[in-house]
Structures are given as structure tokens and as C-alpha cells.
Q: What sequence folds into this?
């Protein structure tokens, strides 16, 4: 009986803990930014030579993305990526990365 109670308590704690971990707010910016992680790293913290974009100001990120999209700022890949997003989506991405520490 004691073993059953311990197992039940363990399972209840696991469920409670598991649901707490899943309580992450999934925003549009988070969803749109997932493709950026391949080059810029998780949450914009680059593991290599590609610039980190976490914590940059919204204005800086929006302007950079708009410049890539218009061709004003040259890049190998970023211009093509930026073309795939609307201006509103680029603002969501900028908002997301600017909020990352």
C-alpha cells in the first residue's frame, strides 16, 4: 500500500511539474523566429561567426530587416529570407529578438 501511495504521489508531482514546463506562451514572434535559429542560434544567441541578434533594439532589427528586404543592405542569404515575410511579420520577429536577454 505504501508503495502504491508513493508511486501515485510521484506521478501526480510529475504531471504537475510537466504542465508547468509547458506553460510557455507561444507568440507569433516566437513562431516566426524559429527559422532564424539555424544561423543566429537559439533566442538569437549565435554560436559562431553569424551575428547574435538577441537584445538588439527593435528599431535596429526592423531597419536591418527592411534593408535586407529592399536590397539596400547586401547579404548572401538574409535578403532572400526577409523577402519571405510581410513587414508586420518582420516587426514581430524584431520584437521577439529584442526581448531576448
A:
Amino acid at each position: 500500500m505504501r508503495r502504491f501511495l508513493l508511486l501515485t504521489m510521484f506521478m501526480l508531482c510529475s504531471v504537475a511539474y510537466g504542465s508547468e514546463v509547458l506553460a510557455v506562451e507561444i507568440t507569433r514572434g516566437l513562431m516566426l523566429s524559429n527559422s532564424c535559429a539555424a544561423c543566429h542560434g537559439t533566442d538569437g544567441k549565435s554560436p559562431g561567426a553569424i551575428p547574435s541578434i538577441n537584445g538588439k533594439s527593435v528599431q535596429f532589427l526592423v531597419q536591418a530587416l527592411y534593408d535586407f528586404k529592399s536590397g539596400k543592405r547586401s547579404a548572401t542569404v538574409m535578403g532572400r529570407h526577409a523577402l519571405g515575410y510581410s513587414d508586420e511579420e518582420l516587426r514581430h520577429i524584431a520584437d521577439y529578438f529584442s526581448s531576448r536577454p
Remarks:
- The domain at 27-98 is CATH 1.10.760.10 (Cytochrome Bc1 Complex; Chain D, domain 2).
- The first helix runs from residue 2 to 21.
- Helices lie at 2-21, 28-33, 37-40, 58-70, 78-83, 87-98.
